[in-house]
Amino acid sequence: MRHVLSAIVQNVPGVLAHISGMLASRGYNIDSLAVGETEIPRLSRMTFVVVGDERVLDQVRKQLEKIVTVVRVEDISSQDYVERDLMLLKVACEPGPTRSEIRELVDIFRGRIVDVGPAQMMIEISGRESKIEAFIERMRPFGIKELVRTGRIAMVRSESNPGVTAHRPPLKTAGVPLREAQ
Amino acid sequence: MATDTPNAVSNESRLMSGADILVQGLVDHGVEVIFAYPGGASMPLHQALTRYKDRLRTILPRHEQGGTFAAQGYARATGKVGVCMATSGPGATNLVTGIADAKLDSIPLIAISGQVKTNVIGSDAFQETPIVEVCRGITKHHYLVTDVNDLPRIIREAFHIATTGRPGPVLIDMPKDVQLAQIIPDWEEPLALPGYTVTTPEAKQEQVNQVAAAIKLAKKPIIYAGGGIIAAGASEELRTLQEKTGFPTTMTVMGLGAFPASNPMCMDMVGMHGSVYSNYAINEADFILALGVRFDDRVTGKLSEFAKNAKIVHVDIDASELNKNKLAHIPVCSDVKYFLGELNKIVAKGEDISPWQKQCKDWKAADPFKYDEEFDGIYQQHAIRELWKATHEMDPIITVGVGQHQMWAAQFYPFDEPRRWQSSSGLGTMGFGLPAAMGAQIACPDRLVIDIDGDGSFQMNIQELATLYCEKIPVKVLLLNNQHLGMVVQWEDRFMKGNRAHTYLGPIDHLEATGKGGKPYAQERYPDFVQIAKGYGCGAATVKNKSDLPAAMKEMLTYDGPYVLDVEVPYQAHVLPMIPSGGTVRDMITS
């Protein structure tokens, strides 16, 4: 089973090392991990894709929550959410008919060509994991030179019917003044 | 600093160095003693300690690891935070084992390390190690202080984290320039712990009701109590619950003393070297009330077979322990003291459990811990039982190293009260006993403190004899000296056809080194512990004859100062019963 966990963490040095170290030392299988600042500069958000059964997921969540600098952990995949992965891909294409063939594919997948060289093109594409992977497969025959992905990020959709919202605990930061990062 | 403002003088007088702030913070948190070994990067801290010597005793251990275990000994005896300190680099890495030990046994510990100046951190400077990186996975939390202004807050956070929830070790790494920096500290700055729950988890009323209802249905119940009871100070509540229900009660090695061994329904220690009767009872039970325990592999053996037919209630303050190893039917995340307090208000007897109680008592009568009492020398078990006879009325604190002697002490030195027993139980660190006894003796200067040790463990921190002598700490050591690493020898004998693989502690050309030595004693003794102890200034004697043992113990107990009683014991004795690693109660070895 594949789960998307989203963790709010304090934006202090060493948090990423602490979390990745914990995951590695306990032998949890993480498919992807993305991290970046949030709308509150002193907090960061980490998005994990974890593969495992409910019990593994439960342990990962609890072990994450135990880390002092982890503020909150949510299992996003139990809710209605949007998930994205951003990829940059360099593909071989000598001038000639392959160029237009690749352009067509990029259009179909709603990607963008962001750089064109004498014998290579760089393509930017974002979307769900399945779409990204399908695109990679289409590019393979042309010769992929280089590929980089951000890892999955995800966000829960706004509730269409706010009356029946799932319970979402407030951030524990509420009312706690934090020293601003220098 | 600006000196032209009108209140410049008062401001200047309020200026403090980072080192002074740290020490002041320790004093403000009620710290009475720190075990600190100096070095280049921690000298300002030590200078500060001299300025506070009327309020805070500084003890110089002879190895930083000794300092960590002494701090633990203090913490385990009192429940308060133990504090130790070392310099950067090798000093800091010598703290690592003690920190890992405190993590696994949930001991509140604050370890302070000196660090190279912030402007050279990361340059492989002299005596630089990234100690926070090293210790991430073995601390409850850790700090590298890069701004002295954060220090007052960090000290308060460190004490808060070490002592609340599930206790544990906190590391504060202090670069030398931060120790020297001068500021006016803001002691009121709020804690910045958005990710750390301030409130202690408490069981919901419906969970308590559910457990009370389950208790009524149990026909073959047992209480399985661990170190969490002692950490929570819930021994009284546990006794009340047992009185109200009549449930047989067994304990982990961390839980010994939580429930009185003299109670007829006490089933003593459970697990690999636990009692036959506790393991039978857990195996047959239909209901297990697991309180402040973590279903460690040394308790459960093969997990899938452990307590297979029992309904399990698991209460722990740490949510991540619930369902970690064994799925609980009723997991309760709660401070166990609160939980038991609430449960005791409503708990009532249900099913008649007298047949089960009788069964447990029969098991207990049939298979007590035993050894060959006819042997004309001194078996380890005999020495411990004699020590118990000679000292239990003085209500001493007993510490142990790790290995056979540790398990025998757990079996043959029963406790009726918590915080009398100190054992490195989770990490199993040899060398724990002597420094832990040192810390316990400082916490309880009027109590008798005895380290029951093995000759292997003893040598791992033997240098602390110097600290005992120089600081006038009258710890007694009952050294069960069999010249071998007994527990490993036992496994060699049981599972490896007796092939000796570096488990003999004497010269390598002795016959014992290859397992061909005479029996039951090693033929020559090495080293001469009496001479070593005397060299350190301690009292010491050696004893081999059974009939001389009581007098030798009396001599030890009446000696004014630290004392080592070297007891010559055979090396063939095995700790029994034994459930081999990963086995079940059916695999139990009893002879």
Outline the structure in words:
Chain A is an alpha+beta fold and 182 residues long. Chain A folds into two domains: 2-79, Alpha-Beta Plaits (2-Layer Sandwich); 82-154, 2-Layer Sandwich (Alpha-Beta Plaits), CATH 3.30.70.1150. Chain A has four helices and nine strands. In chain A, a hairpin with a 5-residue loop joins β2 and β3. Chain A is elongated, with a radius of gyration of 20 Å. Chain B has three domains: 15-183, Rossmann fold, CATH 3.40.50.970; 205-366, 3-Layer(aba) Sandwich (Rossmann fold), CATH 3.40.50; 380-568, 3-Layer(aba) Sandwich (Rossmann fold), CATH 3.40.50. In chain B, β12, α14 and β13 form a beta-alpha-beta unit. In chain B, α12 (235-245) packs parallel to α15 (336-346), α13 (276-284) runs antiparallel to α16 and α17 (380-391) packs across α24 (549-558). Chain B is globular and about 75 Å long. Classes of the chains: A alpha+beta (182), B alpha/beta (591). Chain A binds chain B through residues 9-10, 13-14, 17-18, 21-22, 25, 43, 55, 58-59, 62-63, 65-72, 171-173, 176-179, 182, and chain B through 132-133, 136-137, 140-142, 144, 147, 150, 153, 161, 189-197, 318-320, 322-324, 327.
Write a concise synopsis of the structure shown.
The complex is a heterodimer of chains A (182) and B (591). Chain A is an alpha+beta fold and 182 residues long.
